[in-house]
Amino acid sequence: MQNTDQKAKILVYGALGYTGSLFVEHALDKRIPIVLAAMQHEVKNLSEKYGIEYRIFEISDVQHIVAYLSDVKAVINLANVSYCINRHLIEACIQTKTHYVDLAAEYPDILEIYKLHHVAFANGVMLMPGAGFNLAPTDIAGRLASEGLPDSEKLFLGFATFGAASRGTIKTVLKLATAAGYSRVSGDLIMSKPPFEKRLFRADGKDYNLIHNPLMGDSLTGFITTKIRTITTYSYYPWILIQFMQGRMNWLRKFLFRYSNLFFPLGPTQNELAKQYTYTWAQTENKHNQKLIVTIKGPQAYLFTVKIIGRVIAQLAVNNTYPGFTPPSVYGRSLIDGIEGVQISIEQH
């Protein structure tokens, strides 16, 4: 195996997808030796446009992948969030001592990656799922809230996106809508499905009703980050998706999933990217009923994601890594501070 000191390149897999294309357009730093990769030959055209290296390979066989990672310091996987699809790529990264980052944020995928913590740690490999909007900001908000109220016993986390979703995101949400997730209660992970429970969050003078969403991976990452033993997670979803999550109109959910390519666009338009925004909330409480609330307003979700990925890559480029399973908040608020559109507010009650 090649000496890890000689591994300098950062490989971005999935460069042709919606998020990958946004990354190249909005977050690519050509001062860093980045390699664009995909399984389709069209990645060559993209790499030639930006004057950077490319590689073409599939991720269905570990030893096949290994051959492409000998000079790669880290893999940023923007292609798919499913562990079932990514497991060979992750195994190849561990085998070649290559750090691995992806956008997985739902509990089933987060848990599978977490199970690899010890073997990754032993190999000096960082595994960082959830490096996009739907986990990194909640992880950071939770850290800020717990640091502001150090004796917190409860943590509530939530996020809301306002605007269009990509086809890939919609398919993932439709697929997992009725799946079981977890809440953390007194340190234990309790399996649950999305119930009717709601929580009110306030931002910019408006109230938002969020529904309990146990599929959020924060019940795992939030505990690692804050050590708070009771964590409940919430999301802001449209009415129809809430019906799906509660097991209603299952026929329609399956129909939309099967024919998603016909009903949903690849992703938001440039105009939507510029005008839409996101919110992230974290609230901690202690036994004295003191509360601390962190609110993060950010840019459109996909734009926010690629900007965060750009910040993670900058950390990887200077070897600021942590072996084993590592939540994004390890980099603190600096991971999002200064990104255009980001506003962080902290209030104590």
Structure in words:
There is one protein chain. With about 350 residues, this protein is of the alpha/beta class. A seven-stranded parallel β-sheet has the order 3-2-1-4-5-6-15, with helices on both faces. The protein has helices at about 20-25, 45-50, 60-65, 85-95, 105-115, 115-120, 135-150, 165-175, 220-225, 240-245, 250-260, 260-265, 270-275, 300-315; strands at about 10-15, 35-40, 55, 70-75, 100, 125-130, 155-160, 180-185, 190, 200-205, 205-210, 230-235, 275-285, 290-300, 325, 345-349. It is about 35% helix and about 25% strand. The chain folds into two domains: about 5-130 and about 305-335, NAD(P)-binding Rossmann-like Domain (Rossmann fold, 3-Layer(aba) Sandwich), CATH 3.40.50.720; about 135-300 and about 340-349, Dihydrodipicolinate Reductase, domain 2. It is globular and about 55 Å long. About 45% of the residues are buried. It contains 14 helices and 16 strands. The mean pLDDT is about 90.
Categorize the overall geometry. globular
Helix content: 25-40%
Please identify which CATH superfamily of the largest domain we are dealing with: Dihydrodipicolinate Reductase, domain 2
Through-space gap between termini = 55 Å
Largest beta sheet, briefly?
7 strands, parallel
- Total domain modules: 2
What secondary-structure arrangement, pairings included, does this model have?
Blueprint: E1 9-13, H1 18-26, E2 34-38, H2 43-50, E3 53-56, H3 62-66, E4 72-77, H4 83-95, E5 99-102, H5 107-114, H6 117-122, E6 126-128, H7 136-148, E7 154-162, H8 167-176, E8 181-185, E9 188-192, E10 198-203, E11 206-212, H9 218-226, E12 230-236, H10 239-245, H11 250-258, H12 260-263, H13 270-275, E13 277-285, E14 291-299, H14 301-317, E15 324-325, E16 343-348
Parallel strand pairs: 1-2, 1-4, 2-3, 4-5, 5-6, 6-15, 7-12
Antiparallel strand pairs: 7-13, 8-9, 10-11, 11-12, 13-14, 14-16
